[in-house]
Amino acid sequence: MDAFAPVSDPAVEGAARALAGGVPSRRPAGARNALTAVRLVALLLALALISKFFVIVPAGERGVLLRFGAVQPVVLAEGLHPLLPLRDRVKPMSVRVQSRTLHSEAASRDLQDVDFDLAVSWHLIPERAALAYQRLGDGRAIESTVIEPALEDTLKAVVAVFTAEQLITERAAVKQSLADRMQERLAGHDLVLDGIDLLQVQFSEPFRLAVESKQVAEQDARRAEYEAEKARRLAAARVFQAEGEARAQKLLQEGLTPEVLEHQAIERWNGHLPLVMSRDSLRGLNLKSLLKVDRLLAD
Questions:
Q1: What angle do CA 47, 53, 55 make, to 5 degrees?
Q2: How many CB atoms lie within 10 A of CB 126?
C-alpha cells in the first residue's frame, strides 16, 4: 500500500460531488415546510396587495367614488371596479327599498289630539347616488335629516285639514294626501316614495267615549225610525185592506139588484112554501115566479 495514497472518506466525497454539480444533497423536512410557508405567505401578501387595486360593489348598492376625499360624478354600478389605492375610495350606498316606522302626534281640524303609528318606505335614485351622498350623507343620515322631519311635518299638515271623524271615515283620502305631500318632499332630495301606511290611529279617551255615545244614539235613532216605518206600513196596509173590503161591499151591493136576489132565492128554494111567513116575507115573495118554477119542476 502506498503511504502517500489519499484516504477515501464517503462524506467528503458526497459533499465534493454536490459542489461539483453531481447528485444534490437532501434537505431536512423542517427546512422544506418553512420554505412552503414562506411561499404561501408571499402569495397571500401579493393577493392582498392586488385586491387593493379593485373594489366590489354588492347587489342592491351603488358605489360613490371619492378621489382624495372629493365626490366624483361617476356612480359605480354592481360588480368589480379598478381603483388606485391611497387616491381612490368607494362609499357604498343602498338603492334598495328602505322602511321606517314612526310614532307621532298631530291635531285634527276640530282640535282633537291624535296619535299615529306610520310606516314609510322609500329608495334612492341609483343615478343620483353620488349627489345624494354629497348633499345628505349615507343612509342613516338620509333617514335622520330627511325622512323623519318630512314625515313629521307632512303628517301635521295633512291631519290639520281633516276632522277627527273624517280621519276615521275617510282613511283612504288621508293616506293619499300623505303620500302626495311626502312624494313632493322626497323628490327634492333624489328619493322616491314607495309607500306610506297608517298602521294605527288612536284618539283621546273623551273622544272615544263621545264617538261610542254617538254611535249608540244613531243606532237608537235608526231603530226608532225603523219601528215608525214599520208601523206606518202596517197602518197603510190596514187602510188598503179596509178600502178594498169597502170597495168590494159597494160593488156587491150595486150588483144585488132585485132580479139577482130573486134569482138567488129561486135557486135556493126547495119547492115547498114555508108553513109560517111574516108580512115582510110575503111582500118580497113573487108567487108568479114560484108557480112558474113549480111547473118547470113538475115537467
A1: 100
A2: 15
The CATH number of the structural domain formed by 98-203 is: 3.30.479.30
Say yes or no to pLDDT of 176 above 90: yes
Q: Is 290 exposed, middle or buried (0-12, 13-18, 19+ CB in 10 A)?
A: middle
Q: Specify which residues 75 forms β-bridges with.
A: 64
Contact 127, 193 (CB under 8 A): no
Q: Phi and psi for 14 in degrees, rounded to 5?
A: -65, -40
Q: What is the average per-residue pLDDT within 285-297?
A: 53
In this structure, what C-alpha cell is assigned to residue 259?
A: 132580479
Distance CA 60, CA 4 (A): 88
pLDDT at 193 over 90: yes
- Cell matching residue 256: 144585488
What are the boundaries of each domain within the chain? Answer: 54-94, 98-203, 213-255, 258-298
What pTM, to 2 d.p., does this model score? 0.56
- Between CA 179 and CA 64 the distance in angstroms is 29
At 37-89, the pLDDT tens digits run 878 888 888 777 787 888 999 999 999 999 998 999 999 999 999 988 889 99
